[in-house]
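Chapter summary example: a protein plus farnesyl diphosphate.
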Amino acid sequence: MATQNGLPTHVGIIMDGNGRWAKRRGLPRKMGHRAGANAFKTIARYANKIGLRYLTAYVFSTENWKRPKDEVDSIVALLRSYLDEMDGYRKENIRVLFIGDRTAFDADIQAKMARAEENSKNATGLTLILAINYGGRAEIARAARRIAEDAKAGKISPDAVDESLFSQYLYTAGIPDVDLLIRPSGEYRLSNFLLWQTAYAEYVFMSGVLWPDFKPETLDEALAEYRSRSRRFGGLDDGDS
Ligand code: FPP
């Protein structure tokens, strides 16, 4: 769903390349994640400033637990301190949401997430969505499980299960589908990110930039590329018929 000013309504970003950014500088990987977290904060503010409605970022996947413990710990520590900074988002009119299985995190982190969501729930600017312990397949399986439970309990009839109802059982219930998916760093994969929600998204792969170097101008480039594409949703272009 594109808006009238040509901006996509919902942008998804796979923040890739932190490790390589650090390696090129002879730094430990955790320094790459720290630089990546800073880049993310800058992009979130900028997205709000230009009037973007939804921005979802892949912060931590269900597969990321397989990384060495000190690297996982460093990402969790960044998340913890960022959650404290989020109190300021209310002033900036940014609404924060988290998608994924948050129960895997320590109780204090879960409480901070709930607080950030509660504090910002009336904001009318950007909705900033952080995917944490998130996996697209896990999300779809969870939705199917919850639908089966509701059907078993007699709350819904199996005949009522269509795409629209299914969407309401995803973490992203009520959030429009992704229009533009951006992945920097030269990997050309979706990596289990928003599988359902990107069905008709435009993909912009930016091989020349690693996530910590991603700047507002880089987002502008991706938005310009998006505007240059014609979206058909399986139909024909206007004028082709
Ligand atoms: C990919 O880079 C990035 C991640 C797995 C995690 C993303 C995390 C951050 C941007 C930092 C935390 C952010 C917040 C908002 C708290 P990679 O490590 O896969 O890079 P590589 O492919 O070069 O090794």
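Key point: The mean pLDDT is 95.
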